[in-house]
Amino acid sequence: RAYIARWAYRHPTPKDFFRTMNDVAGEDLDWFWKEWFYETWTLDQSVTGVQYVDGDPSKGSVITIANERQMVMPATVRVREQNGRSGVVDLPVEIWEQGGTFSFRYDSRSLVDSVIVDPSGRLPDVDRRNNVWTRPS
């Protein structure tokens, strides 16, 4: 509605649309516009490892994910534990501002059985084989 109100009967450019959406959302979405409309980049998020705090799964785990390509997107991570407990962690796109890997603490209570990035398959990930980490037997 804001875009139509601002640009009705005028000749907006795509950049005018992008600026209006940024303004109305109250966020800088330039990363999104650049990657989806101006570049031909691809997305490949992966799980690179799981470590336990002080070697004890009941004290929590540190999960490391990576962004293998140039495109960045927010990350959703599902964690399943040996005791049947599971959880989902939603991470914002800003995690990739400092580099291609990101580690976060997960409040595990038992051994982690699996970690999956983008468990619902909503993102255009080019290599889903590296989206899953499973505990070695």
Layout of helices and strands:
Elements: H1 2-7, H2 14-25, H3 30-38, E1 45-52, E2 61-67, E3 75-81, E4 86-91, E5 101-106, E6 112-117, E7 132-134
Antiparallel strand pairs: 1-2, 2-5, 3-4, 3-6, 6-7
Which structural traits does this protein have?
single chain, 137 residues, alpha+beta, 4-stranded antiparallel sheet, 3-stranded antiparallel sheet, 3 helices, 20% helix, 31% strand
Structure explained in plain terms:
By secondary structure, this protein is α+β, with helices and mostly antiparallel strands. It has helices spanning 2-7, 14-25, 30-38, and strands at 45-52, 61-67, 75-81, 86-91, 101-106, 112-117, 132-134. The chain is built from 3 helices and 7 strands, in the order H-H-H-E-E-E-E-E-E-E. It has a 4-stranded antiparallel β-sheet with strand order 4-3-6-7, with no helix packed on it. The longest helix has 12 residues, at 14-25. Strand 1 (45-52) and strand 2 (61-67) form a beta hairpin.
